[in-house]
Amino acid sequence: MSIQAAPVQSSVRPLNDYASIVGQPEIDALWMLARSLPNRTVKMVNSTAVGGGVAEILNRVIPLFQEVGLATQWDVITGGEAFFSVTKAFHNALHGMAYEDRPEWFDIFLATNEENRKRMNFDESFIVIHDPQPLPLVYSREGRRNHWLWRCHIDLSQPNERIWNFLRPFVEKFDASFISSAAFTHPLAIPQFLVAPTIDPLADKNRDLEPEFIQSVVEKFGIDRNRPIVTQVSRFDRLKDPLGVIQAYKLVKRYNDCQLVLAGGGATDDPEGSVVFAEVQEAAAGDKDIFLLNLPPWSHLEINALQRASTIVVQKSLREGFGLTVTEALWKRKPVVASAVGGILRQVLHKVTGMLVHSVEGCAYQIRYLLSNPQLAKRLGEAAHDHVKENFLITHTLKNYLVVFLLLERNPRLSGM
Amino acid sequence: MKQAREPFQFVSAFYLVVVGLESAHTLREFGKQLTTVSRDSIFCHTFHSLATHHYTSYSNDFAQWAMAACNENELAEQLGAIDVRQFVELDDLRSALVHTVDNHLRASPGSGDRPAFEPFFFSETREVALPMPMRASNLAELAEGIRHMSLLSLHYHFVNSRLRLHLRTNDFSHWIAQELELPELAAQVNRVDFYTNTLPEVREGILSYINPWISR
Question: Do B120 and B69 touch, CB atoms closer than 8 A?
Fold first, then answer.
């Protein structure tokens, strides 16, 4: 087993290019902030280099770290199938889903982390550990004077108590944590900063596309642009409720001749993806207007095109740390119908930047409502774009890390409230 | 053009929100906790929230929660109408908020124990303020600096400054009045409404008052 150094994309645009979107004063402020942290180094650690929102954010933000002068290393912990089955079970349990207790899982979790820990060094000024999978690496902070931050991307609002009680001592060894929603806080001895994940507006996933390219992608998949297209972009994961989306679509279909696109892929740390995809295939069988697109992780332009071609974007998650696919759709001025869960509540302000729903029936109704009211859909989309611009672009992620690094250096004993 | 004795020092400001451990699930809990939460928390949900709330009905978090989570529209309007410009001490602002909630609970006791749709999480703001390399010694330089500062820095100088100065004014107006001895312009700038305008609009509003004075 070896530590993977994740391949950071080289196609990220220079920081100053973002001035055309957020304004030069905001970029100047970032440069100034970065100059307050000369010669600092950063290590980011997570559990997958490919697939999912965390890898995507790291791919985009690390080049910006490098550009502003923070030498940054991104390491990915490795583990076997057993380890990732355990972490997936923990992940689901932390989201409050069913959990079957198996004591040996804790040993697998700890042993794999220990193997990774022994092979890694943590000499950087700031260590950022993403999500629960690599949490025990924090044992390495003993005897070091650097600063450790836990970035939690998942919905911790109703965690399984056994798993949370097992993980909490690791969390409390950090200096601070980043969470995506106030509802994810827990009584902890460290400060919990409210920080939203973000998207890169200049990335292939989000940049403007030529209409001809959008048309070519839609045609490639056999989708008819003359009829409404309802789309959910997500990993094939039960927490994203793809079966619920199909049920909602079938309710809509009674009244509106629409099509459903379920586009997504897998992540290397998610062993359940193929099982869920098979379930979705079965549920969609026989309906030629349902398009199941299991796309490879480099399909950013295709995903972008599908979102832009969509009439409505859905995110019917049962739990959601944040939901970057929601952010992407909002940025593209799409009317969004999304579950009122987790971090989605920060993005979709009901009837202002989209529609929030709590059930299959509610989801179906709001899709029908927006299909019947295109002017309202357009207004929601415009407000949604501005909301993302103000709050959820990658320049905010850069700023938030720089600010917390400065806060940690100035006051290493940052107390909670 | 009149030159100031003391130049205006522009500051670049950055904030992070720390979520606290206190949360309110009913209006009564909320009213009780409002009396004890830190001043930083009062600041976070009133002064600081003014920087970010362009899409919600109210610019202060308390009013927004009363409306969206408690369905108490009258209380929301009353909380939303508490104008931070009238306060230079957070304890006075807290008293006004507590008084408003107490009055509502007295008039509508049934509303106090109804579970809110979602809890209110009291939070605090952590600030990093860095002096910028640019300074202004006259109106033209002040306008140039305002034009090139980030929106959060504008918020720092124009909104949060009231608590720092303990005056019902902002950094720009204070400096214009004290250093350039232009009280009329200072008053005009201070009237730019940060409740009904977004921060980019506030910036334009301030500059629209300053610019004509530059050529005088």
Answer: yes
Does B117 contact chain A (CB < 8 Å)? no
pTM over 0.80: yes
Together in a domain, B102 and B148: no
Rounded Cα distance, A288 and A401, in Å: 46
B85 and B27 both lie in a single domain: yes
Residue of B nearest to A340 (CA): B118
Query: B116: which chain A residues are within 8 Å (Cβ-Cβ)?
Result: none
Extract the tokens encoding B7. 């130049």
> Do B148 and B90 share a domain, yes or no?
no
Q: What is the pLDDT of residues A325-367, one digit of tens each?
A: 999 999 999 999 999 998 999 999 999 999 999 999 999 999 9
Last residue of a domain, one of B124, B140, B172: B124
Same domain? For B166 and B68 the reply is no
Same domain, B111 and B185: no
| Domain containing residue B172 | 8-13+131-214
The reply to whether residue B52 touches residue A390, judged by beta carbons under 8 angstroms, is yes
- Among A359, A361, A358, A340, smallest CA distance to A349 is for A340
Taking the CA of residue A176 and the nearest CA in chain B, the distance in Å comes to 10
The ipTM estimated for the assembled molecules is 0.93
Where does a domain end: B59, B92, B124? B124
- Choose among B21, B119, B149: nearest Cβ to A25: B149
Instruction: Tell how strand A147-151 and strand A176-179 pair up.
Output: parallel
Q: Cβ of A407 and B123 within 8 Å? A: no
Chain B CB within 8 Å of residue A399 CB: yes
